[in-house]
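seq:
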Amino acid sequence: MKIIFIDLETFNPEPKAINNGAAKYSEKAEIILISYAIGAEPARVVDVANGEPMPDDLYAALSDKTGEYCALAHNSYFDRTMIARVYGGLGSQLRLSMPLNLESLFGHNTLFLQ
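struct:
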């Protein structure tokens, strides 16, 4: 299984919208930046606010339906909601979560990715 580490930076013109939960906040929020890494590859940042398109490797990983990818995010529900809304359902099939610790993900405390 390949792991996608992903984090979004967003903006919502209604600052108090976050008080109503992630789904409500995401309705008017826009993605500013997407930071990601696939496996042990170097991390990349996509400047969505300035029109940078989604890179092919990230698009392929988020559109994968084989179960080959697992995405890890600190705020997984919100990130999946935002990606699906902005990119027309993309990533909605992914297992998207954040483990409690590295041992629960890899079986040991040392980060080793293949």
